[in-house]
Amino acid sequence: MLDRYTAKICCADLYASELARLILGDSLHPGGLRATNRLGRAMGLQAGWRVLDLACGMGASAAAVSRVFRCQVTGLELGAAAVAASRRRALAQPVPSNVAFVRGDAELPPFRDGAFDAVIIECATSLFGDKPAAIAGVRRLLRPGGVIGLSDITVEPGSLPPELDGTMGMMLCLTDALPSLGYQRLLEDAGFAVAERENLSGEALSLLAELRGKLALWQSFGGSAAAADLAAAPDLLGRVAELVAQGEIGYWLYAGKKLD
Q: What is the pLDDT of residues 125-184, one digit of tens each?
């Protein structure tokens, strides 16, 4: 059994892998940058704000928030390869982004109290080992009246098939996800007033359909052994899609304001 920190390193490396990027793209969450922009609007992001993107993955959302909302964005990511790649891509963009990338643990962010106007967490809270402590840490990082934007996979109690409690479940953020109301309670218990809550489960269905197609294509062209292992699970992905359609699995957006 891996210890918690080693497991997080392994997960970060998995998301930075060529296979994960092929399957999920650079944004690594349902809805991609379209969903990121919806989250930013729900949060009311303003030009010039200091924004932290926790567990920023390959940095696509951080760069997009900087360009679209004209914010000063810091992306924090545990994977060394992802941070290095994010920095290279940011420098290569024809339109510069006001974005910086730092390597660190999203559950122990290395920033001073009140350093940010807003914090974004996309499809990462479900992976935190101690969710209440992590969200309490986010509150510490925000100035008075600062805002949080969170989007994540939701799983209603007892609905996840046991065969999804492994690599596939981890890649889809399913294995330790909360119910739809669980994230709202998590934010409220940490001292946030939830102002927006939106069901984006249709984006999860679109991602699942795209995922199945990409895996099948990769397998048909003789993809790697790892891809073949994943492509052997189309029935699981179909089952996930059924559960999304039934409301047992979903993808939800939340925006809240720090209470004094």
A: 998 999 999 999 999 999 999 999 999 999 999 888 887 776 667 766 788 899 999 999
35 vs 207: CA distance, rounded Å:
12
Measured CA to CA, the distance from residue 211 to residue 118 in angstroms comes to 31
List, in order of start, the domains of the chain with CATH numbers: 4-156+175-200+250-258 (3.40.50.150)
> What is the layout of strands, in order, in the sheet containing 50-54?
99-103, 72-77, 50-54, 116-122, 142-155, 249-258, 192-199
- Bridge partners (DSSP) of residue 251 are 153
Token duo for residue 79: 């994977």
H/E segment holding residue 37: helix 32-43
Q: Which residue type does 31 have?
A: G
Residue 101 backbone zone (phi > 0: left; psi -120 to 50: alpha; other: beta): beta
Tell me what pLDDT residue 10 has: 52
Stretches where the chain sits below pLDDT 70 are 1-28, 95-96, 166-168, 171-172, 212-234
> Could you write out the DSSP letters of every residue in 104-144?
--TTS----TT-EEEEEEES-GGG-SSHHHHHHHHHHHEEE
